[in-house]
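User: My advisor, Dr. K., asked me to get a structural model of this assembly before our group meeting. I'm new to this, so sorry if the format is off. These are the inputs:
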Amino acid sequence: MDKFKIANIIPQQVNLNQIDDSPGPCCMSYGFDTTPLVDSISRIGLVNLPILIKKGEGGGEVQFTVVAGYRRIEALKALHVERLPCRILPSETSSLECLLINLYDNLTVREFNPVETGIALAHLTELLPAKEVVKSFMPLFNLPSHLETLHLFARIEKDFEHQAKGLLATGNLSMKAAKLLLEMDSAARKKFCRYFSLIKFSRNQQAQFIDLVSDLSHIENNAISGVLDDHELTEIRDDKHMNNPQKARSLINLLRTRRVPRLAKAEKGFRHMVEKLKLPTGHHITSPPFFEGPHYKLEISFRDGKDLMEKLLILVKKEGLINFEDPWNKGI
Amino acid sequence: MANFHIKRTIVEIGSEINPMGRKIIERVPREPFGKSDDATARGNMGKDTLHLLSYKGDFLKPCPGTKEYICCGYQILNVATNCPLDCSYCILQSYFLNQPHLRIHVNLEENLSRILEIIDRDPEQIVRVGTGEFADSLALDPLTRWTDILMQPFSERKNTVLEFKTKTIQIEGLLSSPYRDRIIVSWSLNSPLISATEEKGAATLKQRLEAARQCQDEGFVVSFHFDPLIPHKGWREGYLKTIDLMDQYLKPNGIIWISMGSLRFMPDLKPIIRKRHPGTSILDGEFITGLDGKIRYFKPIRIELYHFMRQHLEKWHSDLGLYLCMESDEVWRKSMGWSPLNSKGLKGFLDERVVKIFR
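Assistant: The format is fine. Below is the predicted structure of the whole assembly, which you can bring to the meeting.
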């Protein structure tokens, strides 16, 4: 298409009811909020005109499909506007040209969320060879030019249910967690999404939660929904007295106790040993991560050399220090 | 050939005129040569496709141990990558995710002199070499005849040993060779349950031990690797059964070493295992993240496994050259009753075994 062709199209007034209500085959928007656009249009009016294309025969009153500007049209509907100026593309404009108009129109003004990226890449793959999409278009989304990454986003668009897409689009589901959820059936995914919509886990916690539940599902030969419906988990999820971080931590801890019982027991034993030592304030003992390394760490806060010496003297006289040992060692 | 079939052969340009490549092409039982199609190869890692190519890197490289754990100082002879067997726990599934097919490095022969030059550089230094890290050493030997290429030059050197590590019974090439000195034939072993359920395409335990017996009878030094040890329901009885079978089939004094290692893997392997082997139970254990970033069993579980194996293997014979693969000084002491302290110490221990067994 000529570079100035769109700019040269003379805007036409179109009734809103003449425009197809659906987002149309080019739309790449998902999970958006029209409020800022409504606010903007009500203050300064419509700056960029939507681009439409004439529909085929038999549309009745509806004559146009949206090529670009679906959000603006939704905002105008919210403002009860009845007529708006639009640019109408020539009917012979190809599907690929329409798609690229939408893509570049959006790319220049905003970032795509992962669901929108999936939609865009899926649309492009329908019209272009996958290799070309990988090479020429994935860098536009700051994605590595890998076929696997293309498949990942395409699967998000194809397989994710509305709730999962919504969580991902709003940043309430991490890509790492999304990747794990893709490997599950729809019922299991929906169960996880219910947890993630009720409790705000950190990104790492989300992945850990999914991993723990799916491991336990294998080990206990129980469906994922069975593990997630366990009353101990749902009680924490629905507890009215705990806040979000507390719930997330409690759920992870509960699952870890079941998934790695010996490690969880050793951690508990370690905490118990440290408590029994009754260390003075400012003393802190930490275990090596997962007890894998051989050394524990003692941290002492002190004011000066004299203070340190006094604290060390108290420490060496501590009863029970000699019995401090690997908590996992018992029973071997 | 064993329980696998080559359905397709890909020959990279130049490999068809290479002598080794030409011989392999002549030996391939089926004809269909075709273009590479990596997309279809991803699911099965291209295990039915033979891919002949020239390897551009160094053929001889030290085993990529990590400083956090004690490594044996092994040298890997990189003759091929990927393997026709399909063990659920295999780390090659993530190592070679983007390099499918059974890749045979057909420029091995022309690089042999360079490999031997490295070994000859210091005649006092014992170089333990193996071909079984990135591939099974013998699974494809009927096609590649690595045994023809490698046995003589290694056999003629006093400061080296060559270990063929396998889970197959492809020992024809070995047995038909006149060379025995400095050659070690090695089998990976596991419990009967793990062998039967997690080592798809591999020979049965009894077949492996029968092949080992044949090799011993034919004058070969043998070794074994219990790696990965995997705690599973009835693991004690299972591993005892394997040790019993070893007793039935083998002469223990002809064993140069038996290594033990427990299941460990980089985190990216887990989803691959889940996807490729959905029924597996190997991921059910109590894992932690090790000091090298690999997932491994919680320390007391590893100590228990090794201690149990050591106790029963030593009951069978007191001088088996038992050692641990990639473990810490602490785990060595608590499970084996001694420690080589560091990688240098372990290398020294195994080099002494070489001197003792091959004299």
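One thing worth pointing out at the meeting: The longest strand of chain B covers residues 221-229.

User: Perfect, thanks a lot.
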